[in-house]
Every structure is written in C-alpha cells, then in structure tokens.
Records
---
Amino acid sequence: MTPNYFEFYDLPETFQPDAAALKRQYYTLSREYHPDFHATESPERQQEILHLATLNTNAYRTLSDPDLRMAYILGLHGLLEEGKQELPADFLMEVMELNEQLMELEFEPDAEAVQRVENEVNALSETFDAGIEPVLAGYPGLPVDVRPQALQQIRTYYLKRRYLLRIRESLSKFATRSES
C-alpha cells in the first residue's frame, strides 16, 4: 500500500502545497529520524527509524516536485491504473496530426517545420495549463463529494501533458538533426 505523504507531514492533500511548510516538515522530521540520534536504540527501533527517515526523504522528493506530486495524488485515488487511460477524441486527433508531422520530419528534416510543431505543442500546453490552474488551486476547498470530478479533470490534464512531453522529446531529436 502506498504511504500517505500528506498524512505523514500532517498537511492537507493539495496539488499546490505551501513549499515553506513542506520544507519545514522535512527538516523537522530529518532531525527527528536521523539514525545518528538513535544509535543506542534497539536494532528493531533503529530499523523503524531508518524506515521513517526513508519515508521522509521519499515524501519530500515526491511532494516538492509538481509532476511527481500530481502523479502521486492521482495514484492515491487509483486514477493511473494501466489500461484506464482514455483521452478525449478531439485531443487524440490533435496529437495524431502532430505525430504525422513528426513522421514527415523523420524523412525530411526541416527546421521551420520543427518550429511550427513546437509552437503548436506550446500553444496546446499553455491552454491546458490555464484551464487546469483553477481546478488545482481550488481542490483543497472542494467538498469531498465533488473531488472525484476534479480528480478526473486533473487526470486528463496529466495524461495530455505526458503525451505532449513525448512529442517534445521527439521534437528535440529532430531539432538537433535539422541543425546539422
């Protein structure tokens, strides 16, 4: 079972945590669970402290990174299961068109075409970011019965971003090829 890092840090579940509070909790627990301070404890207690220190490091690493945090929260709610990652048809059509343009670049490297696709990806990305921002910001204040709908919107956003990331990775390869 996945540990609940928000409970571990005694923080509310949010996509936009208070960075200072997060860091404060991390440092407080780092001191509390530092193995050197428990060297005289029983071997069982030392193992427990080591587990808690590792949990603290993993919690901070996950919650301080926006992408890892988003995937983590969606995972906590069972929304990133394999095979359940359908996306809206209109988005898939846009991505298909971008992928077709990438395939053309495979055969005919063209710096202008790379730039054009990159601009399209950036515009899509900016639109998605602007659309999801209010949902992310308002999530902690939502009633519990409304959160599942917000999580579905965030899940769709997350999956779209992953698609666009793959396209950006392909673009960077083409960009270096067309420069040579």
---
Amino acid sequence: MRVVSGTAKGRPLKSVPGTGTRPTTDKVKEAIFSMIGPYFEGGDVLDLFAGTGGLGIEALSRGMNSAVFIDMEPKSIDTVRENLKTARLAEKAEVYRNDANKALGALEKRGRIFDLVFLDPPYRHKFGDELMAFMADKGLLRQGAVIVLEHESGYEYPEQIPGFEQLRHAVYGETAVSIYRYVSGEETDIDKDEGVQE
C-alpha cells in the first residue's frame, strides 16, 4: 500500500500486523478519491475504524487541513501513527483508541465538525447508516459533508437515509462503496451521477 497522490504521493504505508484488518486497496482508494475529490481545498476529515489510516492519510495528502483517526485495536493505532510519520502528516492528525460511539460522543463535546467522513466498519457489522444518523444528531457534520461508507458488496444500504442523499454506489469485487452527502433538513436537489458498477 502507498499514498496514491498529493503531497505524500508514493510514500509506503504499513499494514496492521495480523489478519483482523482489511485495508482498502490502492485501486479502491484511487476510485474513491476520483469520485469525491480528487483534491481538496481544506476541511476536516474523520477516519472511523481507521485500520491503517490509509484513507484519512490520503485525504490529508490531497489537501484536507486536519484528520481524526479512531480505532479500537492497539495494533491499528500504532500502525496509523507510523504511517502518519512516514507520510510526514503527523502534525495534522489526532489519533485515538476508542469505541466508535464513545469517540463520537467525545468529539461532540469538543465541538468538532467534519467535512469528510470515512466509515469502514467490520463487514459483519451493518450499522453504517445508524452511525451516520448518530453523527448528524450530534452535530458532527457540516452541511454538505461527504460520507464514504465501505461495506461488503453483498449488502446494500438504502439510497435514502434521513438527512442524507446517496451520490454514488460502486462495487469492486467483494467491496462496495456507497457515498452520501449530508443535506440536513434541507430540500436539496442534488445532481446525482449515474451509479457506477464495476
């Protein structure tokens, strides 16, 4: 794995030791950023279930101002820290070991608001939409924030989630990516791209 583009382009990223973590492949990562960017002019990113931190690091490399990385596994936290150092992006990042819901509650208390969120829970968990609703309820999302939800391709999240509009849905082998925009209570007419199926 490596950083695909931006200021840290080409820098290698370590995998989490063991087999419990499923890193996003470079191919899928490149596809995600071609859909949501590919580059950014600032903003704050949250990488929940961070694993290696590859997605959040890629977002920082492509122009986001700051990132918060959350994971429960100590090995993942160590790997994220190492990868941030390798990418020379550690000064733009905060890394916390915590349960997702507890972490979101702590971020709410600190008044954090995000423009981009990566959600990549273990495939056995099908609560991505619940986490999105929880973040919206806690005021953690800026209007227009983009949510990138990775999940197994055999499972489909609804196109319509209250407060969110699905922008894209793409399948890459066993991995699916559903991209949503936070539209709050507004009746926003979003230009929807044709869904990508590969």
---
Amino acid sequence: MSIVDSLPEEPEESPSSESQLSNQEQLQQNHSPNHAGNHSQLQSPHLKAVAPLRMVETAFLASTASLIWFINFYFPLGPVLRIFFSVPIALVYLRWGQRAAWMAAVTSGLLLSVLMGPVRSLLFVMPYAFMGVLLGATWHRRVPWIVSITLAALLGTLGFFFRMWLLSILSGEDLWIYLINQVTEITEWIFLKLGLLNTPSVFLIQVGAFALVVINNFIYLFVVHLAAWLLLDRLGNPIPRPPRWVQVMMDYEA
C-alpha cells in the first residue's frame, strides 16, 4: 500500500452546504447599505401618501366650516350651528398641526369671500376662524377647560368689538350706542325691582355692557367645549377632560 493510497479522501461539497452559503450571501446583501437604500426607496411612496391626505382633510374641514357659516347666515337655526363654527378648524389642528389649521382658517375665509363677499368673510374669520386655531392649540396641549375657555372668551370679546366697529363704519351708525341703550333699559329695570331710586351712571352702564359681552362669550365657549367633548371623542381626536362636576352632571343626565 502506497502513501498516496493511505491519505484520507477529501469530502465532497454537498448541495446543502452550497445552499447554506448562498443563503448567507443573500443575507449579507440584504444588510448591505445599498439594499437598505433600496428598501427606503420602496417605503418612500407610503410616506409621501400622507401629504395628499393632509391637504384633502384640511380643504374638506375648511369648506365644512364655511358651509356651516353660510347656512346659518341665510337659514338661521338658532344657536345650533353657531356652536360648530370653530370646531372643524380646531379638528384640523388636532389632526395635522398648527400649519394645517392656519391654512384651513385662510381657506375658509377665501371661500366665504367668494361666496358672500369680503365683509361677511371677515365677520367669520374674526373671531371664529382664529378661535378654531386657538382652541385647537389649547386642546392639543391638553390645557384645562378654564384656561381654554378664558382665552377663547377674550378672543371672542375682541371679535365682538371688531364686528361692532366694522358694521358701524359700513352702516354709518354707532351700534355701540344701540347696545348701551339696551343695557340702560335692563339696568333701570333692575334698579326698579330693587327699589333703588338712583339713576345708573354712564360708566356703570358701559361696564355692564362690557360684562354682558364677556359673560355671553364665556357661556358660548362652555357650550362649544361641551359639544366638542361629545363629538371629537367619537371621531378619535379627544379633547381634555372637563371638570369633575361636568362629568358627574353628564353621567347623571345620561
């Protein structure tokens, strides 16, 4: 027997080992930077699909706010539709952020300017469109109801005096005097019921008129918060929880 014959034979490479090597090479290629770049390129269309959705929802909710104002102006249904003037724009803020909410406010103003004229468009933009952005910002930051209602009530008071000033210019009459006369009659009636013989001063009447506007805005904003709490929870965009006494009252009524 020769030395060559006594050497052990080299094992032949089996097909299974070749397949394992090929699988390892494929795994290395999958984890390579080039493949990662290709994978990100394949996923990019899914990310780009968010922009059209944001644009469509912003335009739809802006047109919804404009349509609510349009219907309430020509076919007033009492305070029902007025509650939802600012809610669509606030919903845009909750879903897509600050930039989309401002775009919705501007879009709704431009749409109403085409449908009803620039003056009536301004009556919606100030304060209801701005109020929608403010409410969306406060609800997004989860501030308490007392803070959001106070800020929105101040904005609503400014909007009231802005509308009073604009309509007074357009009509050529001082509408503030008309409001003062109404408050004067109410104040004199209160003094009469209380048995007071004094005549209310002009300063007291003006303070009463201002307080009446602020209280009216506080009540309006509370009802808006209540409606948004009941509505937006069902749409998947909840706002901060109301005070405990409101939750107890709503549970009791339910």
